[in-house]
Structures are given as structure tokens and as C-alpha cells.
């Protein structure tokens, strides 16, 4: 996807001292805040899409599969309730069901009923799924080091993760 020359990535944040524009209609709008947030979105989306695309191509997986396999690899017992996994992966229940069907069909995961609550269905990695998830995670680690840590450094990345966790925690449930 090509960048458009008019997007926030190319424009400097407007200065509050710029009095020669017609900002009289913009009273109360914080252009610098909006511009900064758009840069956060663009940085995340560009990095996420780049990583997801490369992992999908390298491992011949559909969109979202690599992310789900990595999430399952770090989950307790290598499984998660499907509804929670869909939510964390940012997918609709229908879209996630199709993804789970593909992972199960490829023998990378299986559905497991919860013994305590039969309404809960887990998606759990198979042995092949664990091997694939480890290979994906190793590749993702290398890509993240090259594309994220090189750009931000260890301290910058730590600050970013702390900031994003604070935003997640502060806004969790507000859009539900």
C-alpha cells in the first residue's frame, strides 16, 4: 500500500502558534494530539501488517493464523477459550470460527470442551501446532528485533509496551 502525500505521516504537527490559518472553527480541537495519535495508529498498523504478511507467507498460513498460534503457544496448557481468543485477536466470532476450522483441518489445533462448563470450548495446540507455533515465534522474534528494536531500542520498546498496557487497561471494556 502506497503512502499518500497528504496523510499525517508527511505533515508536521500543526503549531498552536500558527495564527494565519482559519482555526477559529477548530476551538477545542487539539490538532497536535490528533496528529500524534494518528502517527501511533499508522506506526502500529504498518508494523503489524508487515509482520503478519511476512509470517503468513513464510508459513503458508491465512490471515490471523500466525497470531493465534503464537497466542496459544504462550497460553497456559497451550489452550484458550475460543471466545477469549477471538476477542484478543480482534476477530468476529464467525471469522474466528473459520480460522479455527482451518487450524483444526491442518492438524495444528483442536477444539476441547471444558469439563467444568460445557458452554466453553477451548482451542488447543496439537503437537504439530506447537512445533509450527515455535517456528513462527522464532521468526517473529527475529523480525521484531530487526524492525522494532532497531527502530526503538530496548528502552524505547519497554516504554512503548508500558504505555500500551496502560492504555489497554484504562480503556478495557469501554467499547464493549
Taking all residues together, what is the mean pLDDT? 87
Tally of individual helices:
5
* Total strands: 3
Largest sheet: 3 strands, antiparallel
Name the structural class: mainly alpha
Helical residue percent band: 55-70%
Q: Largest beta sheet: what is the strand line-up?
A: 1-3-2
Shape, per Cα inertia axes: globular
- Oligomer state of the chains in this structure: single chain
Characterise this structure.
By secondary structure, the chain is mainly alpha-helical. Helices cover 59% and strands 7% of the residues. The protein has 5 helices and 3 strands; from the N terminus they run ααβααββα. It has a 3-stranded antiparallel beta sheet. A hairpin with a 7-residue loop joins strand 2 and strand 3 (121-125). Helix 1 (31-59) packs antiparallel against helix 5 (127-171) and helix 3 (82-88) packs across helix 4. The radius of gyration is 20 Å and the shape is globular. The two termini are 31 Å apart.
In short:
With 176 residues, this protein is mainly alpha-helical.
Features:
5 helices; 3-stranded antiparallel β-sheet; 176 residues
Lay out the secondary structure:
Layout: H1 31-59, H2 65-74, E1 79-81, H3 82-88, H4 93-105, E2 109-113, E3 121-125, H5 127-171
Antiparallel strand pairs: 1-3, 2-3
Amino acid at each position: 500500500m502506497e503512502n499518500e502525500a497528504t496523510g499525517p505521516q508527511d505533515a508536521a504537527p500543526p503549531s498552536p502558534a500558527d495564527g494565519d490559518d482559519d482555526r477559529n472553527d477548530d476551538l477545542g480541537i487539539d490538532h497536535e494530539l490528533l496528529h500524534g495519535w494518528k502517527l501511533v495508529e499508522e506506526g502500529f498498523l504498518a508494523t503489524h501488517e508487515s509482520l503478519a504478511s511476512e509470517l503468513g507467507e513464510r508459513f503458508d498460513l491465512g490471515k490471523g493464523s500466525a497470531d493465534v498460534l503464537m497466542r496459544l503457544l504462550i497460553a497456559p496448557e497451550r489452550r484458550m477459550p475460543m471466545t477469549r481468543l477471538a476477542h484478543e485477536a480482534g476477530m468476529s466470532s464467525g471469522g474466528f470460527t473459520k480460522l479455527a476450522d482451518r487450524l483444526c483441518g491442518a492438524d495444528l489445533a483442536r477444539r476441547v470442551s471444558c469439563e467444568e462448563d460445557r458452554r466453553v470450548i477451548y482451542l488447543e495446540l496439537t503437537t504439530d501446532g506447537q512445533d509450527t507455533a515455535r517456528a513462527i515465534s522464532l521468526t517473529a522474534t527475529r523480525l521484531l528485533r530487526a524492525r522494532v528494536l532497531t527502530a526503538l531500542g530496548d528502552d524505547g520498546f519497554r516504554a512503548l509496551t508500558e504505555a500500551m498496557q496502560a492504555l489497554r487497561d484504562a480503556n478495557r471494556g469501554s467499547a464493549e
